[in-house]
# Entry
Amino acid sequence: MVGNSTSNTLILRTAATFLVPLQMLFSVFLLLRGHDEPGGGFIAGLVATAAVVLYLFAYGVARTRLLMRVDPRDLLSTGLILALISTVPGVFLDQPFMTSLWYELVVPGVGKLKLSTPLLFDIGVYFTVMGSILTMVVALTESEGEK
Amino acid sequence: MLLAVLSGFLLAIAAPWLCPLLKDRVGWFMGLLPAVLTLYFASLVPVVAEQGPQVMAYSWFPSLGIHLNFLVDGLSLLFALLISGIGTFILIYAGGYLKGHRYLARFYVLILSFMAAMLGLVLSENLITLFVFWELTSITSYMLIGFNHEDVKARASALQGLFVTVGGGLALMAGFIMLGSVYGSYSLSEILSSDLALHEHGLFVGILLCLLAGAFTKSAQVPFHFWLPNAMAAPTPVSAYLHSATMVKGGVYLLARLNPAFDESSLWTLLLSLFGGLTMFTGAYLAITHTGIKKLLAYSTVMALGTLVMLLGIGTEMAMVAFVCFLLGHSLYKGALFMIAGILDHETGTKDIAAMGGLRRLLPVTAVFAAIAALSLAGLPPLLGFVAKELLFEAVLEAPVLQWLLLLLSLGAAVCVMVVAGVVAIKPFYGPLRETPKSPHEAPLSMLAGPGVLASLSLLFGVMLFLPQELLIAPAVTAIHGDPVAFKLSLWHGINLPLGLSLLSLVLALGVFFNWHRLQPSLAILREGVGRFGPEAGYFRFMKDLTRVAAWQTRVLQNGTMGNYMITLIMTTVLVTGYTLLSQHGNTLTLDFDGGFFELFVALLLLLSAGFASMTRSRLGAVASMGVLGFSVALMFVLFSAPDLGITQVLVETLTVILLVLVLFRLPSFASLSSPLERGRDLVVAILIGSLITMLMLAAIEMQYFEPISDQLVKDSVPEAQGRNIVNVILVDFRALDTLGEIFVLALAAVGVFSMLKLRAEDPESHGR
# Structure
């Protein structure tokens, strides 16, 4: 059954070992390019979640928790806090609450890096999406094990 | 100024990390912030005295007329100084009182948040912002009363305080909205400087009653006074801070703030004088029927709050001066007395005054501070309390309504309060030493600093009246009255009627004080008798009935069958939306289809998978075909070149299938649970909602009431939001508030699922992580 580490195939496990890092990388890529090209925090969060869920199917809950290091609920709260923080800075610059701010950083050899409060907000969305779905999936899988 | 208000919240965030780091010195460190704030507010005093009220503006939701503006005038500065000044000593005191407590960090988080919220409340210039801070103080107060959350009584008291104050808060919000619509602005300075005659407006009575409901519940006026003494279940620093010096004065602050707009109304004068006077006497009388030191002080706080409201109601210039003096005097001595009560409780292990005695030799310093503070409470010269009480009598003598009633109530209250002062300052400290649960010794410096400074200030201000008069009292009186008032404070007014009344009350009080122990039982019996039919009994009955109604409507509406919920929701939508659609739009809908081969193919796939999902007998098959359905929709998005939507749809669909698979294993195996009749009903419902959505889509395509905003969004995307992906720009910039709401909903859903699966009452182990 799902999450039960005895009944999993070798193929799934081997595939997961290679796919999970790639998926995580892809999710970060989607997150960062989201403002200009298709992507963004929501989509990236879903991709990252899918990666973790794949790992969960292959190796079970205990090893997934080990891999994540943090409780999914902490991801959830981190995301909400980041999104909230991103709304504040405008107020201190005599602008309305939630006004977006940009700061362009020139990184030698890479090009221009656009840092902004919407990016921070998007990262918050990323973590919230990831945290909330994983909270549900992990809770469901664990309670299945209890039965 | 923004930083000054919000710094409490910032320090509150850091508190959990600071507490283990600083160990026993944490109280002194936390005290630094309000100390700095006190200096900052003090530096504004000369500015306001010279240049008049200052408004400091920050935008918040400018499109809704809601600003994070701060109004600094005599009244708000006086309150801000009290909040930060007393707060300094409370934070230091708490470091000693709760030394080594398991939840000390939590305590600092809450009390710092409260301090910030309270500062926001008194400094807000915008009604809506004020309301937000107002509710924040109610919520932090709730958590602080219930701080000892393992105690059933503390939890019940906390909930009672919350219900009463938040219930009033709702009324207050309605009042604010009406007030805002009458004046066309939520700005306090605009409302107060407007020429509009509010009391002639049609909404006046409604506004007045709503505002009074909010202010009376917060400031524990009769008949809502019962929550305040119960709130004494909180740790003593909380009682000293929230429930005597600051939060409960929030309602009084609001009334004083709005006084210039209301004081021409005779209804305002009558209601405030009457309820204030009754509260004053009730509080003072109930105080002497108790022997628990905190209850005693709590009821005398109720008395003080009543006095303040009554003085606002009387509304003469003398009453305004008395109001400010009394406010200042009360905050100083009551803060000190509560902290002394905490010392007694901490050192002896009992709260019952009757069980204490002879502590003077063991706690000499505490005894001195208690004596000074109690003299001010009793209103004896040369303390600030004396000046305030003389002014109170003078103000009552010139009251425009109910003069004799108010005078009698004031006299009665003065007698009772003197008895309270005697009981607090003399009973525990003199007479033979009594055996107490703990062997007492003098409190540490951190716990003596607060009472010491506050009691000394009562004395200093009393002797050197010119100090507070020019800097604190005069600007505050101006702010409440609306115009400058000329007055001169002095300790000696000559031999006049107020002095006579003071002497009379002193004589009566001495009589009661020496017979206090003998009178105690009969006083308590009277209290019990009233208590059976009093407002608190009403509260319990109301809550019981409310719970019964809630249980009934839950049984009816939420019977636990998913299918019933769906049918209720869908049929409501079909009926209401369908009726609107047919009556507004008519039933002429045209379908013109010009899709190509791919679209037709996908549409066919959609239909097939939907059909299969509803016919199949295998649960896994149903899930899989729902997946096909979702992917087909994604394909549709791709065909109409919406890659973001397509990607999202694919991902959501994948995860939905995973979640469904996880859930389905928990369900009993598929059996024929529904009868043919029920299935027929479900079919009808499904067809109805399907046709409704189809008609809605067609109608939406056909009609264009407004210019589509998409062109505007496309145009603004790069210049205003620096992004070429419009979907993302809308999500994180143009409509970021919506997204913020949505991710909170998402988080709540996850927490809901988690708690349903993991938290069970019978299994305390699985609580937390």
